[in-house]
Amino acid sequence: MDFFIAIILGIVEGLTEFIPVSSTGHMILTSKIFGYNQEDPLLSTFEVVIQLGAILAIALVYRERIANLLGFNRTEPISKKIAPRNRLNIIHVFLGIAPALIVAFFAKDYIKSLFSSTATVLWALVVGGLFMIFAEWYSKNKAKVTAHEIDDISYKQSLLIGLYQILSVIWPGFSRSGSTMSGGMLSGVSYKASSDFSFLIAIPIMCAASGYELLDSYKNFTADTIGYFIVGFIVSFVVAYIVVLGFLRWIQKIQLRHFAYYRFVLAAIFWLFVIR
Question: Which sequence ranges are marked TM in the entry (predicted)?
């Protein structure tokens, strides 16, 4: 690894972690371009580090909401008209992350075995894109939207979003944010509220996953590698912060189907020019 590659991978992570295009899929495909093996311990550690940079970015964006959830900040929530008893709380977050964490714990060996298959990622990009298009159509034409803001989300909807998130756990390339946003829209949650909830529950679930991986890979932090890790972390943090702010600002103009179309094009390019 050199600093150029560290910067490129940091940019890829920051660009893709929180939008529904699959950061895992992009990291696998980018690593393939550079000739890296996904089973390389150094690469795995580097990916964990730059993921932590992206987590810090989203935590900074949602710092007031997190403070409210933890009881450190008594400021008004995003939905000021919502009664205090109905505000989003820790139980909502727990229901949103528990299913994926349980599946990831018991199926971790099976999940890791899928990371070496580029074809698996490409199929996930396509199927996940179709799933997103269906969710957007269903939300606009069939579903009764009952949660327009994040504070409107019920416990049942939080759990359903958590169950949909399992798709991204067992199928690398499906996209965590894509599955949670789509799951929210299929469950009667608006696109905006689904996006906010997806970003928020990303913090604990990604911290848990990254922390677990670091327990196995901390030995890769050496004097020779620490510089690459720091550069990747900083780049990922800055890019992810900009991307999330941009996504939240333009959320009504950038619909799920637009990300789905991008996924189809990416899968086709890799299928035609990289795999074949």
Answer: 42-62, 88-107, 119-138, 197-215, 227-247, 259-275
Tokens of 134: 């269906």
- Which amino acid belongs to residue 238? V
pTM greater than the 0.85 cutoff: yes
What pLDDT, on the 0 to 100 scale, is given for residue 161?
A: 97
Residue pLDDT, tens place only, 131-150: 999 999 999 998 889 999 99
Low-confidence stretches of the chain (pLDDT < 50) are 78-85
Q: What is the pLDDT of residues 182-226, one digit of tens each?
A: 999 999 999 999 999 999 999 999 998 888 888 777 777 788 888
In the block, residue with structure tokens 């139980």: 91
